[in-house]
Each structure stands twice: as structure tokens, then as C-alpha cells.
Amino acid sequence: MTIRLVLAEDQLMVLGALGTLLGLEPDMTVVGSAPDGEQALRLVLAREPDVLLTDIEMPGMTGLEVAAEVRRRSLPTRVVIVTTFARTGYLRRALHAGAAGYLLKDSPASALADAIRTVHRGGRAVDPELAADAWGEDDPLTDRERQVLRLAGEGLANADIAARLHLSDGTVRNYLSEAMAKLGASNRVAAARTARDRGLL
């Protein structure tokens, strides 16, 4: 049985390399490639691949958002995240979003191909070192705190965040204060930076 793949990666050289490498596997065929998350989701809907291989940080939609949308729509496509982010926060969020695999870009091509086969069979494939580390670190942020902190990290003022998320200014301040306290940060910029460094955004 041939495993049908869609690839999503905003670095075109990496996208091309992945397509070439996986195209050499006798039981795999690439049926579509996308440079951003929105196009990746459209390809998944149109081509119905067995596996979507996606980066995390991409324009439009992140790989985590695409994975969550695939799960929300109950699509049969299995999602494997391939990223440079060796952070347990990203791993936990990927698994929470419904991803079945999480591998680092410096993994050998053979390991990537084996992971795709494992995921296609219904299993889960996670970088073993990250999986071990993930057991020892908790994610302190709520989803709403994460949303507010992400927008604050992008430079939005409290009023703008409130308008974007349909919240009051006071509620936004409360969420930011809670996030700063949980992360041990003295201000919103430091909190956003710490959360991003830990893979919590």
C-alpha cells in the first residue's frame, strides 16, 4: 500500500528536500506541497492524504492550528510535526492538537520515513528525548492566557487585545498579570519571551 503525503513547510528549500527524500521511499508518494498552513489545509481537504507532514511556524496558520483543524473536522489524515523546536511545550501542544508524530528536522531520513509508517499504521512517533523530558515539565498557562500573551508579544496594547478577543481591558490585564506571575516575569514582554522560549506559545 502506498502512503499518500502532503508536505507543509515555509522554507522552500527544506520543502523541496523533504519531497525528494520521501519520494525515494518505495511505499510513499507526495501528492501535494504547501508553503503555508492555510494552503496545507486546503490540500488536505482536496487530496485526502494519509499523512500530513508539517512544520510548526508557518504563515497564515501554524502547523499546530492545522493539526487542530484536521482533528476538529474528524478528517482521516494523520498529522506528523517536523520542526527545529526541541521544546517540550511545543510537543505537548502538538499532541493536544491531535498530532500523531513529533520529530526534529535533524532526525535521519530513515527515522522520518519509519515515523510516517508508524503513524500511518495508527501508532504514535515522538522524538524519544523530547518525550522523556515532557514528563518533567508542566504547562502553567491556560489557553486564554496563552492567547493574550501571544498578542502582547506581538506588540498589541491591552485595548487592542481586548477588542481582538472580545474581552474587557480589565480582563486582559488580569490574564497578563496571571501569566507574568506563573512565568516569574517582571513585565509582559519578558513573559511573552519566556513563554516562547519554553515552547508555550
Describe this structure as you would to a colleague:
With 201 residues, the protein is an alpha/beta fold. It has two domains: 3-134, Rossmann fold (3-Layer(aba) Sandwich), CATH 3.40.50; 143-197, Arc Repressor Mutant, subunit A (Orthogonal Bundle), CATH 1.10.10.10. The chain contains ten helices and six strands, in the order βαβαβαβαβαβααααα. It has helices at residues 12-23, 37-47, 63-72, 88-96, 109-120, 128-134, 143-153, 158-165, 169-183, 188-197; strands at 3-8, 28-34, 51-54, 78-83, 101-104, 125-126. The chain has a six-stranded parallel sheet with strand order 2-1-3-4-5-6, sandwiched between helices. α4 (88-96) links the parallel β4 and β5 (101-104). α9 (169-183) crosses α10 (188-197). The longest helix is centred in the C-terminal third of the chain and has 15 residues, at 169-183. The protein is elongated. The model has no long low-confidence stretch (mean pLDDT 89). This is DNA-binding response regulator. It holds the Pfam family GerE. GO terms for molecular function: DNA binding. Residues 134-199 form the HTH luxR-type domain.
Q: From the alpha carbons, calculate the radius of gyration and give it in angstroms.
A: 18 Å
**Continuous helix count:** 10
Number of domains: 2
CATH class identity of the largest domain: Alpha Beta
Structural class: alpha/beta
Strand order within the widest beta sheet: 2-1-3-4-5-6
GO molecular function, one term: DNA binding
Modified residues (4-aspartylphosphate): 55
Domain Response regulatory: 4-120
Domain HTH luxR-type: 134-199
